[in-house]
């Protein structure tokens, strides 16, 4: 079997021998299957990542005319962390339809179905086999990871759709025409800008298109594409620079964005180490799980030799399929290389395949095309030359992969995967106990707290959807002085001590609560797991100096909730480990007598 190299210009998809009825039948089947599967696995519950409700609140701000600002506090702070594209989509849905989160999630179903049709057409052009294109798009419609994000109120599916639409415009464009006279190339250029405003990885499409155009010496198209992109994103970049620069760029430089105190990557060696660890993870886990629609059970475990062999074998198969594509190899190669040039220097803690979700359909199709090519070689060896067998029979042979994509439900003895597992999760009517308690605390705030109370909690954007209050997170610092000043500056009324499982709560919040227990009056306590909603009393607890590490120490006083106070000199002013000598006073200021504390115990 000979590989036919790319022609100088993309040629139209041949329709000779291909019934238009078959084309429409396949398209209709994909649309129906895509919508059915979406309904089958649709989960009405909010995504608990936190980003989902961040997007929701930003969209709400735009919809109600406040602009692109945060509205979770008394101040209207200009937003700069997320690009405004997806919040703008949410705002449109709110204004035209409903502000219900389920309505916003339902629009992902529309994006999914249209994306499948776009992929079907692109696969048809890339492989010149309508049957293989149908099977490839079908497997994408059943892909666990794509479907998982399809029901979330997150930017992934919007970016998935817009980026595919931009690529579809590109493959439909006529490079023989001047760029500015081709409506499809205009659509591509504007689509890249739109995708960038949803996720900044939209920039990577320029890498794919640029490589494709560079080889064909289409300088005019390259210049036009670059000018449109620069002019399109310039307003956002100017705004971001005025607000302190790109927060994503700062996060990329940190060892762990969730723990800023760990610092930034040091030196060339630090970046090389990060690059290697990410390369290992993507080859052995992310790409195989995304392509084969499986789960990664444990990122913490070391990578085995079997994972390396399986990952490299799959990558070789994908590469083989890519090499033998009939068209747009350079477009796909440039797009993938530009994407991974960025992903491989991202912080290692950003695990999962959401950042490469837009490439998953092409991995699936290239993998299928690699198998298609190898089976074709085998058929030639045994002298099976029937075009019907090769062009129709072999693609339909791949339908035997469908059961593995459907997957299985989870039990006590086995993990779940595939669309059956997504269906199982969607049918669970409530959240896990920790989040149920968290949302009950939010409901208490909505019912009993004064209007516009400020609540400090771990996931403010999740909390605010149920509390309708002001919210903010606690500072990620072990410095007790800075922690106290933050709570006071934010005019905190309530604090939530949750059991959501994030390491930051026991690392930063709980030590401060233990150091000043009298500042936190429990107004709601929930069990299994323990969750506390506390009223904050800044006038109680430690009042005095702090040492160089921000720990309470020196001449000061500790004020108790019952009105007493202990005045003296302390080497440790935290109640949990209170150490020092001084005098006790009753609520009226009368001396009760001297006292000594050692490690929180009165002697």
From TrEMBL:
The keyword Protein biosynthesis does not apply. This is Glycosyltransferase RgtA/B/C/D-like domain-containing protein. Residues 83-226 form the Glycosyltransferase RgtA/B/C/D-like domain. InterPro entries: LipidA_mod_glycosyltrf_83, RgtA/B/C-like. It comes from Siphonobacter curvatus. Its main location: membrane. GO terms for molecular function: pentosyltransferase activity. The chain crosses the membrane at residues 21-42, 104-123, 130-147, 219-238, 330-349, 355-376, 388-406. It is found in: Cell membrane. Pfam families: PMT_2. GO terms for biological process: lipopolysaccharide biosynthetic process. GO terms for cellular component: plasma membrane. The keyword 4Fe-4S does not apply. It is a multi-pass membrane protein. Keywords: Cell membrane, Glycosyltransferase, Membrane, Transferase, Transmembrane, Transmembrane helix.
